[in-house]
Write a structure and sequence with these properties.
The strands form two sheets. The chain has a four-stranded antiparallel sheet with strand order 1-2-3-4, covered by helices on one side. It is an alpha+beta fold. It contains four helices and eight strands.
Length: 170
């Protein structure tokens, strides 16, 4: 039974990934035109954001997090007139490496979006948040970890999830 569940889960995951791989994203969607597209159009195409961040200039950033199972977090920046400024994937390697010791939990959340999970390690006193991110090669899953102590970043790390541990029931 367990082998069947694993095979069925793998087939379902493959079908979903193949279906979603052709979908437009806020970063690559030709309908999204900086200076022209509005916040209402963004939400019409992509639905309600998982979070809205107010910006100092009167604009806002719409967060489209795909955690815990996705590997992206699109941040769509709108100006004070509600026009599209930019759209980025906050979980790119370049952006992840901007996380530095001394940053607060809010700064990290604002930079990377909603995390996949949080685990507190009593012996080390670290609260570790992780995000599923795109691996360098196919065949495994990759997680980016941010280690906090007293609500401040102390370090980052990466964890590899090998194929035999991909599914929740394994």
């Amino acid at each position: 039974m367990r082998e069947w569940m694993t095979m069925a889960g793998a087939a379902l995951a493959t079908a979903v990934m193949m279906t979603l791989s052709g979908c437009a994203t806020p970063v690559k969607d030709e309908r999204m035109r900086p200076g022209v597209s509005t916040g209402a159009e963004v939400q019409q195409y992509y639905g309600q954001p998982s979070r809205v961040w107010p910006e100092a200039d009167g604009g806002r950033t719409l967060e489209y997090a795909t955690q815990p199972f996705g590997q992206t977090c699109y941040m769509v920046r709108l100006d004070a007139q509600d026009r599209l400024v930019s759209a980025i994937d906050a979980l790119t390697e370049k952006n992840r490496f901007r996380v530095e010791p001394g940053m607060s939990e809010e700064q990290v959340t604002r930079m990377l979006g909603r995390e996949r999970s949080r685990v507190f390690y009593k012996l080390s006193g670290e609260d570790v948040w992780d995000w599923s991110v795109a691996p360098e090669m196919n065949g495994y899953l990759l997680r980016f970890n941010v280690h906090f102590k007293d609500h401040v970043v102390v370090r980052t790390s990466q964890s590899v999830v090998y194929p035999d541990r991909r599914f929740l029931w394994d």
